[in-house]
Write a structure and sequence with these properties.
It is built from four helices and four strands; from the N terminus they run βααββααβ. It has about 100 residues and is α+β, with helices and mostly antiparallel strands. It has one domain: 2-Layer Sandwich (Alpha-Beta Plaits). The chain has a four-stranded antiparallel beta sheet with strand order 2-3-1-4. The longest helix is centred in the N-terminal third of the chain and has 12 residues.
Length: about 100
């Protein structure tokens, strides 16, 4: 199993924008079949150092991670939406039991 973790720093981290972004990320639950698990969290501590949102996705393997990365809904809807609204993002992919 692989866990894919992405942290996002939004241009506008207002409550409304955080909720919209959370909903877009969570929409993958029913739209991206390679996802085994998904979690989205909003940062509670406001500081320049902190990111605003975290996305954690679990997939079966590195091959499934590649499928996820190229999934039409993920690319055309989620990535497009997020890339228009972020200042930066960081990602980590690692194996879990």
């Amino acid at each position: 199993m692989i866990k894919h973790v992405v942290c996002f720093k939004l241009k506008d981290n207002s409550v409304d924008e955080l909720e919209k972004a959370t909903n877009v990320l969570m929409s993958m639950v029913t739209k991206v079949p390679t996802i085994w698990g998904i979690e989205v969290g909003q940062n509670e501590v406001k500081s320049d150092r902190n990111y605003d949102l975290i996305l954690q996705v679990v997939v079966e393997s590195l091959d499934k991670l590649n499928e996820y990365q190229n999934d039409k809904y993920h690319v055309e809807v989620v990535k497009k939406y997020m890339h228009e609204r972020i200042v930066s993002s960081v990602a980590v992919d690692y194996e879990i039991d």
